[in-house]
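Readers of this paper often ask what the protein records in our data store actually look like. Such a record has a labelled line for the sequence and another for the backbone structure tokens. Nothing more is needed to write down the fold, since each code stands for a local backbone conformation. The record that follows is passed on verbatim for readers who wish to inspect the format.
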Amino acid sequence: MSVSAWSMITAALSRTRSRPSMSRSRRAGQSIFSWPMRIAQHNMQFEPFVLVAPAGAYVSFPNLDDVRHQVYSFSQAGQFELRLYGHEQSRSVQFRNVGVVALGCNIHDGMSAYIYVVDTPFAMKTGADGVADITGAPNGAATLRIWHPYLRTAGNIVERPITIGPTRRTEAVQVRLRAAPDRGHGY
């Protein structure tokens, strides 16, 4: 299944009746969560700006800057604080709860990023072309969820019921985003 949307939007599928097993997920022949579970501090920004992570994942926070950072979140889905740490040091946090984890740095207010924690193996971020190719989802009724921190909807999320069949299907979804704050990076 393909999801067409704006660049760096998160798309997720979930079954309406039962949850698929995380361990049996696939994306083009590999685990759908094949990207690194990390958000680096680099050039006084978090990279990537949005990370999709499965519930229970450990996410590392390496500091690649020559200055110290103090990473934190007050989000209900994952409150934490990583006390000051310096260049080439790293810390990790486990995210058990599903939801959005907004990140900041107590020292550098312009730094922000998000972790979208999901309970489905069928989730990913769109590429620069605005397409997320989600494969391997079981046939049947499902809910397509599209999330972005600047999406112009309640909770920054769009949900759409869909039916997954045996043939490839493209689901085109157009969304409107609020302007990003001027923090030295785009989406």
